Amino acid sequence: MRSSAAEPVRVVLHPRYPRGVEEALRAVDGIELVEPSDDDGVVEALGDAPVLVTFVWDDRFLTPALRWIQSVSVGVEQYPIEALRERGVALTSARGVNAPQVAEHVFALLLALTRAVGISMREAERRIWRPRMGEELEGRVMAVLGLGTIGEEVARRAQLWGMEVVGTKARPKGYRGHAVRVFPPEGTVEACRLADVVVAVLPGGDSTRHLVGREAFDALGRGWFVNVGRGSTVDTSALLDALDGGELRGAGLDVFEDEPLPADSPLWSHPRVVLTPHIAGLSPLYGPRLTRIFTANLEAFRRGRGWTNRVV
Asked: For the chain: N or C, fewer Cβ within 10 A?
């Protein structure tokens, strides 16, 4: 379906979105932005609106009028891909929108572990003065599990810190990036064996569930682990065993198998863990970056071609 460039395109914005998205979309020419207050309102608005901007999915959103979904998130595992394909609904992701801030967050978590910032802050709350020797990253090997847009940004920054990078990628053939050695997903354990630091930037889904488990942590040994991808990709029991057994030196976690993290989880108070509540992708620049992708895709929607980050 093509829309006339002369008439505004009716766009429904789901009420759950990162800060700054609404303001940025309001500045886009050629759209009528509709902002329902809940899922029922979204369904009602989609009765005559062809475009939905969201990262939340409800099967009721697949209305006859819907023609394009601009995901606010990079991950798209929540969407019914086959149903969208059958109905001819385009789905575009926000790939690239959070690479800079997530890469920075990786190093925030990692440095909190290696420079003893995390444990020092815990002790500061109890007014304990205990100088600790930190470790250096220069000369270490980092394994980036998931060398996509974010993974490559992490790898680039790691190189600038004087680290050597290896990693994994779904399709490593013809790879040209910052890693000196790349493995397919089945080589995850081997990549961990080479590393002092493992950073997981893996997407969710059945194919990656618990991909980082006991074997991977055994291979990493006395290293550090950071996860900013999806919580489902890590076997939490295996992670805790590696931490409690003394081999794994620390874990920096922004994502978890169960979110919000249950109050009784031992991760909250583990002395070798630094955690944040799934905030790696948040940034005041998220809205403007997403809107650049949306604006390019709005033109593609009107023309019927030239999509950015099209999944379906």
From this structure: N
pLDDT tens column, 110-147? 999 999 999 999 999 999 999 999 999 999 999 999 99
Please identify which of the residues 209, 278, 292, 302 carries the catalytic annotation: 278
Indicate if the pLDDT at residue 4 is higher than 70: no
Is 257 annotated as catalytic?
Answer: no
Indicate the CATH number of 99-275 among 3.30.465.10, 3.40.50.720, 3.90.79.10, 2.102.10.10: 3.40.50.720
Instruction: Name the superfamily (CATH) of residues 9-97+285-303.
Output: NAD(P)-binding Rossmann-like Domain (3.40.50.720)
Active site residue 259: yes
Average pLDDT over residues 53-65: 98
With a cut of 80, say whether residue 218 has pLDDT above it.
yes
* Spatial separation of the C-alpha atoms in residues 57 and 61, rounded to whole Å: 7
Rounded to the nearest 5 degrees, what angle is found at the Cα of 225, between the Cα atoms of 223 and 229?
160
Q: Identify whether 278 is a catalytic site residue.
A: yes
